[in-house]
Amino acid sequence: MKTKAIFLDIDGTIYNEDKQMSDVTVSAVRALQEKGHHVLIATGRSPFMYTSLMEKLGIISHIV
Description:
globular, alpha/beta, three-stranded parallel beta sheet, single chain
């Protein structure tokens, strides 16, 4: 299987309308990473606004 880069937005994708991240989302991101895919954040937010999110999900790169 080929390794893929998967870009996720924060609002409405990782976070729901209440700015919460579900356990299902965390599991899905981890499953992608375990399969060798690269999960990245693509957002217009300033990095300080999502550093803890990246740490929680084990994401090491982002696109601003």
